[in-house]
Amino acid sequence: MIKPFDNRWQMQAWLMFLIAAALLLSGMFACAMPFAALAAIAALMLPRAQVISFMLVAWLANQLIGFAFLHYPLDASTFAWGGFIGLAAVAAGALAQFFVSRATSLPAVACYVGALVAAFFGFQSVILIANLIMLGSLDAFPLAEKIDIAAIESAAFGLLLLANALSFKTRLLAPQPQA
User: Fold this and answer.
1) What is the pLDDT of residues 148-177, one digit of tens each?
2) How many helices (H) and strands (E) does the chain have?
3) What burial class does residue 174 get, using C-beta atoms within 10 Å of its C-beta: 0-12 exposed, 13-18 middle, 19+ buried?
């Protein structure tokens, strides 16, 4: 785990930054918000108990931006998709946290990449199931779109790591899970 926090204030400041990033990313990407990137960075930086809470806050921010500013339709399908996205965000956080907690002997870069891959897999798995339930097929789940989303997730993750390094002037340390 990246451990840039010397005190509780720094951790709360970083959490506020992540929430602001979630709001900004929601406005920029709407349905393609990089939840996996947020889940991976949260799993690397926050105590285990806060990862799922943060993912729920990020999802809520995404939904609020969508309904308040992006004019999501107020219908059952939109609410159902929003629920699936919330489940996917939680799955992304849980899988990233699971990976990070078991990757303490890996080099830091491998842990960072693994956390992002685990989060992406968790998120996309729930979205795949949602496609099957909501649409009855995988027609709306094209590989080319998933590759584009993976690129967005990777770029967002890189920017969040860079923001961490610049904000706290810290070394990117080998992962060390917290209880």
Assistant:
1) 889 989 998 998 888 777 766 654 433 444
2) 6, 0
3) middle
The tokens for 59 are 């999802």
Query: b or e along 66-96 (b: 16 or more beta carbons within 10 Å of the residue's beta carbon)?
Result: beeeeebeeeeeeeebbebbbbbbbbbbbbb
Tell me, what's the pLDDT at 175? Answer: 41
Q: Which residues of the chain have pLDDT under 70?
A: 1-11, 14, 25-31, 167-179
Q: What gap in Å lies between CA 139 and CA 142, rounded to an integer?
A: 7
What's the predicted TM-score (pTM) here? 0.83
pLDDT at position 176: 42
Q: What angle do CA 30, 120, 151 make, to 5 degrees?
A: 65
Q: Give the whole-angstrom CA distance, residue 18 versus residue 36.
A: 13
Long-range CB contacts (< 8 A, 24+ apart) of 165-172? 167/4, 167/14, 167/17, 168/4, 168/5, 168/10, 168/14, 170/2, 170/3, 170/4, 172/2, 172/108, 172/112
According to the model, what pLDDT value does residue 169 have?
A: 60
